[in-house]
Each structure stands twice: as C-alpha cells, then as structure tokens.
Amino acid sequence: MNxxxxxxxxxxxxxxxLAGCAPQEQMVGLRASLSGDNELTARxxxxxxxxxxxxxxxxxxxxxxxxxxxxxxxxxxxxxxxxRLYFVLPHHEAMEYxxxxxxxxxxxxxxxxxxxxxEWPTWMPTSSIMSRWPEFKAYIKHGPLEGRWDNPLGxxxxxxxxxxxxxxxxxxxxNEPSEIGQAVSSGCIRMRDxxxxxxxxxxxxxxxxxxxx
Length: 213
Prior knowledge:
By secondary structure, the chain is an alpha/beta fold.
C-alpha cells in the first residue's frame, strides 16, 4: 500500500476530528441514505457516516456487464492494466467494479483463492511497509489499528492464499476512495467500501481469484 503523510495523520487522528470534516448538510444526507440501506449492517452505517466526504461525494460505478473474462461463475478476476475487478455471474455476465491496483514496482499477477474474510478488519503494517516508511514503526509499540472508517483496509478484507499460505495480498476497502482507478498500492487491490461490501456478500472462503496484467 502507498500512504501519503496526510493518510498517516488521518489514521492516527481522533474520531471527533474526522467527523467534523464533513459539512452538516452532507452528513445528514448521508445518514438518511445509509439508514434506508438494508444491505448494510448497523456497524457499517455507523462507520460510513463518519467517513471522509469523498466516500459519498464520488459516485459508485459498479454495474453488471457481459462477462469479459471467460472464467467460471463465482470467480474473481482482476485486470491490473484496466483497474477493473470482475465477479463472474451465471449466464455470461459479471459484476464490474473499479479498483486501485499495485504501483508498477509492486504489481502482482497469478492465481489464488480467498482464504479468509473479515468485516472491518484490523490493520498492522507489514515489515516491508515499515522499512519503506519508518513512521509506521509506531505500530510495533501500540499494536494494530482497529477496524473503523479511517483504517486503510476499509470495511471488508478478502485475504488471498495460495494453498495454505497467505500471500499477504488482499482485496480490501479503502479510506482513500479518490485513489480508485489508479496504480498506487503495494500490490493489494483496493475497492470503494460500498463496493467491497457488495463483493464480500458474493464471495466465500475458497472463491478463486485470478489477477491478470
């Protein structure tokens, strides 16, 4: 994952400070929208109501398309170059989602499966992240960041395994929705929180995942 200094400060900021960033009328409108969405859990609605304004000001663009992957229904296929993720449906259809992918040096391709799934996951910087950004070594002392709206993993995480081994790559939400459609991460696939919530409901442990260039 790629993190700007502003992202680091956002991760460490208090809930009160972040909640105050949104204009009151936008917050009221968001809460009204969330309260009417039966697909979201009570925790989802609470967390998303605290999210940065980008979370509700940028349109959600997922939609059903003719399947471009040729894979079996139930497969997740990511095209790095297109910054698109597809969940293959029956009858030669697929759900298409915009995503952020790995920066050129951190791009990953291959086959995996969903080995673990988590709602509002905790986040701990990997050793490679801490070596590139020493400021994240603070997490060694205070431990993982709890799952919440300003967590870099967002609302859901699908952990990718090859056999019984965790690849350390994930498909997950994001606290930076404005970066969707870019190559910015350290290899993980980022989605809008509302999109990853939708994908999470379709996937299961063992769902095959194919990442293509």
